[in-house]
Amino acid sequence: MATSTSRGLVGYNVQTAVDTRHHLIVAHEVTNQGSDRRQLAKMAKQAKEAMQAAHLEAIADRGYFHGEEVWACAEAGIVPLVSKPMTSSAKAEGHFDKEDFVFDPVAGEYVCPAGSRLIWRFFTTECAALIHKYWSFDCPRCALKAQCTPSPYRRVTRWEHEDVLEEMQKRLDTRGGMMKLRRQTVEHPFGTLKEWMGATHFLTRSLGRVSTEMSLHVLAYNLKRVMKIIGFAGLMAAVAP
Fold this sequence. Notes:
This protein is α+β, with helices and mostly antiparallel strands. The protein is 39% helix and 21% strand. Helix 1 runs parallel beside helix 2.
């Protein structure tokens, strides 16, 4: 597992999907992948199936941001809401960020902060993803070039499914508090389970055994949560044949 140091930590990555109304764990999985970047679509699909939901919104933190995962959610009829990591080297260096370039879907061109149009030049494939390249010949004469790039031309790339990411960002911009809702939803069960488990963490080893142990924790958590919501009598009535 990734840590604040470069050494990492030997452990297991537990994924959960929690409903925002009752804080019940509707789907979970134990993996030995040290990153969350490839977990979004898989967990969202499991949650949709478990809840038998016609409409589902999947809220996740920026550790889950990956273009293909967001696109996979959209293809499955799931509305993704994932914060974008702030990793722009241009912005860190005091230059215009890619977000400052507005895409014109009708013309198929980008409009830069100076008003010039970056036209499509060619496309390439990077890690099986189709990437389009745009730039303008106005860059050498631009009055804002010092704020844009030290290179002769500012080149902007666009993924073939970039529109899905743009639509998601619009939803996040217009619906404040999504990340706060995520924290108070999915972190709630984790906090409860860790309090129950104490300092010993998992008692078993190997992926299969740890998955079984986690399933028992989730079952106990959900049973206690349901009894808190509808009471013991309500639970027994619900599970009665």
